[in-house]
Amino acid sequence: xxxSAAGRGAEDTACILERFGWRFGDLRPxxxxxxxxxxxxxxxxxxxxxxxxxxxxxxTERAHPGSVTAVAxxxxxxxxxxxxxxxAACDFYRGHGFEVRDRMSWNGTERADVFLGPVQITLFxxxxxxxxxxxxxxxxxxxxxxxxxxxxxLAGHDVIWGPAVVSGTFGTRRIAFVNAPGGIRLEFMxxxxxxxxxxxxxxxxxxxxxx
Length: 211
Hints:
The protein has one domain (5-193): Roll (2,3-Dihydroxybiphenyl 1,2-Dioxygenase, domain 1). The chain has three helices and ten strands, in the order αβββαββββαβββ. It has helices at 5-18, 86-95, 150-154, and strands at residues 42-45, 55-58, 73-82, 99-106, 109-116, 119-124, 139-147, 159-168, 171-180, 184-193. β5 and β6 form a beta hairpin. The longest helix has 14 residues, at 5-18.
């Protein structure tokens, strides 16, 4: 039997996440399962927060001498991809029936969000850390991951950009990027302020978007 479109999307996401040590666990909505070994990463689908992507993650490490204390990753906002032509990429995804939102220019960068079922990818022609890393013109960039304590999460990492505070339609976040195996980066994000409610117009236009 051929896998469904949603199933294929989940498999593609798993391949990306497994490159830096994640694997799929329980895909049912609701709390993370209990009774798992301490070294077992898990992933679930949770649409309870409109400000965060439907994928939520938690990772812990098996304790051993010299290991870094594990810090929970509480959710994933998007997967970032660099493309040579953002408009052409948007046309490709629209032509195949996917939703494209927030196509805009900001801070010298062209960007757009694409929704592939439960997975959001964000297209950039140039990431904010482009001056710190030698990148091809088209490549996978990073997953954008929520954490509760950014400083604790960054301990032991090779930080290439940040920490910095950014604001936009997503609210206000403190973010940083680190190197990871496989030639990718990880973006860690600590939510400082939630976004305004839908229809709220008192705030000035956003200067930053998800990175």
